[in-house]
Amino acid sequence: MGHSCQAPKEQVDLRTRPLRFDLELLAGRLGEATGWLQRDPGTRGFRVGYFGASTGAGAAIMAAAERPDAVSAIVSRGGRPDLAGAALRRVKAPTLLIAGGEDEQVIELNREALAEMRCEKEIAIVPGATHLFEEPGALEEVSSLALNWFARHLGRLE
Description:
Layout lengths: L7 H9 L6 H17 L8 E6 L1 H12 L4 E7 L9 H4 L4 E6 L3 H13 L4 E6 L11 H17 L4
Parallel strand pairs: 1-2, 2-3, 3-4
Helix pairs in contact: 2-3
């Protein structure tokens, strides 16, 4: 009899961990949710923005490339847009890549992805921040950058 010493949350994490790295699955789900928003009478006219962190940024770019008329802006936080591959050249939505100043590997990967993109694009570096933006004020800076990007490309919320 195998008795697990792991908490239920840890057991779920072990089962679902591979799904976090299945970018095609994640991009497909995001695309389906966007399609639902476009069909629903209550949200049909809304502009859509994607916010992706880590591998989720790659999935957001892939999903946006498949629905160029539906997605109006993308923000990546500590993301891996490079994982989007060929979708980088196809994405049309204005894209902001945010990286921590101390996260040198992600900065380099973001710069390489930025060079591939053909849409309006920017990179923002949060000084002193590491990959998870755990330093005091780092997430607040990410929030401010994302809010300004979305307000610029989606329109201000009243």
